[in-house]
Amino acid sequence: MPDNAPRLFQPLKLQRLTLPNRIVVSPMCMYSAHDGLANDFHLVHLGQFALAGAGLIFTEAAAVSPEGRISPEDLGLWSDDHIVPLGRVTDFIHAHGSLVGIQLAHAGRKASTYAPWRGKGAVPHEYGGWEVIGPDTQSFAPVFPTPRAMTVADIERVTQDFVAAAQRAEMAGFDAVEVHAAHGYLLHQFLSPLSNSRTDDYGGSFENRTRFVMDVVRAVRGGWPMHKPLFVRLSATDWAEGGWTLEQTVKLAGLLHRHGVDVLDVSSGGLTTAQQITPEPGYQVPFASAVKGAVSNLDVMAVGMIESPEQAERILQNGDADLIALARPFLGDPHWSQFAAKRLDVEVELVPQYQRGHRLD
C-alpha cells in the first residue's frame, strides 16, 4: 500500500505483528456456543470478515471460567477442549490474509443471564444458571442475579483463569488477546465506585479499585508471548454521577501501558442502569482522543457508531485514534472493508474466488 494511501488502509505494526490495515472487527456476542465450544457458526461468522479483507478480527468475549459467561451460550476458553475448535477459526482467517484476536472476559455480576432473544434477567439454576460473583453483593438490576462477594482467593483464582485462557489462546493460534475491563463486566465492576463498596485492598482508593485489573494485566502479559500485542478494553466513563470517569481512564491508561499493554480499546458505559447516554455518530471518539493525547506511544482504538469510511478516515487523519473498530456495520455488511476501499478509492486485493464480483463502477 503506498504511503499516501488513506490511513484506514495503511498497515500498523504492533510488536512483531503487522496489521494489513486499520480496520478491526469489534468483539460481538453471538450467544451461539454450547459448553463454550466454538462451532460452525463461529467459523462462518468470523471467517466471512477475513474473506472481505478486515485487518484484525476479534472473536466475541470468551469466558475465562464457566461462571464468567454472560449466558449459558457464551464462547469460552476455560478448558483445553476449547483450543481445537477455535484453531479451526484462526487457521481459516490466517489462510485468507487477516489476523485474529480473542477477547478474554469474566461477566461477574452480569453473568448467568439469558441471551437477548431468549429472555431477560437471571437464568434459574434449573435452566442452566449458576451462582455469580462480584466485588460485593450489589446486583446490576432487580431481575439480575445477586452476586456473592469475592474473597481474595476468588480474585487470585480468576487472575490465574485469565492467564490460563491467554496461554490457550496462544495454542489456538491467536495473534492478539484483549482483556475485557469494560461494559459493566467483572473487571469494570472493581474499577467503579458505583459497583465496588469493598473496604479491603481492592476497594476505596483509585489504587485499590484498579488493583485487580493491574494484577490481571501483569499476569496475562507474563503468560502471553511478548512479541504479540496485548489489548485492554475500558469503558472511559460510566455516564453516571459518582462513577468511573475519563480522568481515571487516562490515569489507568498510563499505568497499563507501562505494564505492557499495546492498545487501549476505548468504549464506555454498561455498568449501571442509571447511565445517561445520548448516542450519536462517533460519540466515544473524544474519549479515545483524550487517551491518545495523554499517553504517548500507546496505540488507541476507537469504537462506537463509526459507520462510514469517510468518518473512520477522518478519525485517523485527526490523530484521535490508530485503529477503528466496527461491530454493527459488519453485521449489516460483512464486506464493509471492500465497501470502504471503494469509497476511499483504494485498490485492494480480493481473494480469487471473489474477484469476478468486483465492479469498478
TrEMBL record:
InterPro entries: Aldolase_TIM, OxRdtase_FMN_N, YqjM-like. The keyword Oxidoreductase applies. Pfam families: Oxidored_FMN (PF00724). Gene3D superfamilies: Aldolase class I. CDD domains: OYE_YqiM_FMN. Its cofactor is FMN. One of its GO terms (molecular function) is FMN binding. Residues 8-344 form the NADH:flavin oxidoreductase/NADH oxidase N-terminal domain. The keyword Flavoprotein applies. Coiled coil: none annotated. Keywords: Flavoprotein, FMN, NADP, Oxidoreductase. PANTHER family: NADPH DEHYDROGENASE C23G7.10C-RELATED. This is NADH-dependent flavin oxidoreductase.
